[in-house]
Write a structure and sequence with these properties.
Structural class: mainly beta
Largest sheet: 18 strands, antiparallel, barrel
Shape: globular
Order of helices and strands: EEEEEEEEEEEEEEEEEEEEEE
Number of helices: 0
Helix content: under 10%
Strand content: over 45%
Distance between the termini: 12 Å
Number of strands: 22
Length: 412
């Protein structure tokens, strides 16, 4: 097993732009590792069992100990020690021209000082991809992401979950041009009753065309049309009128991948959206640029810049604009060792809402060392470190903290 996979199985997916924000989530909080999980579709049981012998089944279990110097995210330090335990299952199978995959896991968080925050949750991804012919391909993907909210966002316990179900058909015209049509349904839920007004359902249709070159560079044009409905109004006025976050949206995106050299790749996404709703109203721009450079077989560098305008209601305190620059470096001196570091800087712009003024905040995140050592195919350890500093004109949002973790993982 490659050393990059010895702790948390990473599912590499393209960013999904919903309405006007990217849900490739940046959780600058205590949760360093997130496990994907899911449930197998009942349709998988129908084919002949002899044909469904899995090519690879991996069961993993582990625990990570965390030490957070300022768990409460306040100007006054308030430390906490907690444990993240998990178990995960990874199954992949190819049957004729059908590819099935399942990644499923469950997580448990136990806190030393705040036992009321102890929590269990699951995540997952299941997919079915089919090559019906050389020109017709289909895919159905279900994915569930979940996480415990950071203390800055909400002081009580809350598990936020986002489920996406997406299906698409791809028509390949020739070696260079393809077309795709698809649909997506999404649902966001919160476990805490006080945050149910942030629950929403979303439906979307999309179409895209892609041009691919001989060296695997590509350029895609994608159009989206969708609607998001929140299950509760944001507020109710004394006269009975309500403020709702519901909106319809249309969005156009241009996405490209350019293989500059054998070791260097440039990717970008640029989009323009229009949103129509009571509170969520207006037009805007989104962008993402990233560069990956394999300096050598053992050393890899990644750079990225993104601009994101989250919708009101995606989180309790949504910034109107987020601009983030990030640097990442991986060094693998041998098959057993992996060292990595990354740093990011974000400018966050907030408009005046309710009892909070308009303001700008800056967020700096530095992970000076992540170390993974693989004793064998079955056993690995990992050590992480992180420092986060938020600068805000609001005293209760101006803080910094350090986070360290040490964990072990078993693979069966």
């Amino acid at each position: 097993m490659p050393i990059e996979q010895v702790f948390v199985k990473q599912m590499l997916v393209k960013p999904m732009w919903i309405g006007k924000t990217c849900v490739k989530q940046h959780r600058v909080n205590m949760i360093v590792a997130s496990m994907l999980l899911g449930a197998a579709s009942a349709s998988l049981a129908a084919p002949d069992q002899a044909r469904l012998k899995p090519d690879r089944v991996t069961l993993t279990a582990g625990a990570q100990e965390y030490w957070d110097s300022n768990f409460a995210r306040t100007a006054d330090t308030d430390s906490e020690h907690y444990t993240h335990s998990y178990v995960a299952l990874d199954v992949k199978q190819r049957v004729s021209k059908q590819d099935f995959s399942l990644v499923a896991s469950g997580s448990r968080y136990d806190y030393a000082e705040r036992e009321d925050l102890d929590a269990n949750f699951y995540e997952g991804q299941a997919s079915w991809r089919s090559d019906w012919s050389q020109r017709i391909k289909t895919s159905v993907v279900w994915k569930r992401d979940a996480y415990l909210v950071d203390r800055l966002e909400f002081a009580d316990k809350d598990i936020t979950a986002l489920e996406n179900l997406q299906g698409q058909i791809t028509l390949i015209a020739n070696n260079h041009i393809s077309f795709a049509l698809g649909a997506r349904q999404a649902e966001q839920t919160h476990s805490n009753d006080l945050r149910e007004f942030l629950n929403f359902d979303e439906d979307e249709l999309f179409a895209e065309s892609t041009y691919t070159t001989a060296n695997k560079s590509s350029l895609s044009l994608r159009l989206r049309d969708g609607e998001r409905l929140y299950l509760q109004p944001l507020y109710t006025n004394p006269d009975g009128s309500t403020g709702v976050l519901d909106f319809e949206y249309r969005q156009a995106e241009l996405e490209g991948v350019w293989a500059l050299t054998r070791k260097t790749q440039l990717g970008f996404t640029a989009g323009r959206y229009k949103r129509e709703g009571d509170i969520n109203e207006g037009t805007g721009t989104l962008a993402l640029v990233d560069v990956a450079w394999a300096i050598s077989d053992k050393l890899k560098l990644a750079l990225s810049y993104s601009q994101n305008e989250p919708a009101i209601g995606e989180t309790f305190d949504s910034p109107a604009d987020i601009r983030t620059s990030k640097l990442g470096l991986n060094w693998e001196p041998s098959a057993k060792w992996l060292f990595s570091m990354d740093a990011s800087y974000s400018d966050l712009t907030y408009v005046a809402r309710l009892d909070t003024p308009a303001r700008d905040e800056q967020l700096t995140t530095i992970s000076p060392l992540r170390l993974t050592y693989q004793f064998s195919d079955s056993l690995a350890i990992r050590m992480d470190s992180q420092w986060v500093d938020r600068e805000s004109p609001l005293l209760y949002r101006d803080y910094d903290y350090a986070l360290a973790s040490l964990g072990i993982r078993f693979t069966f």
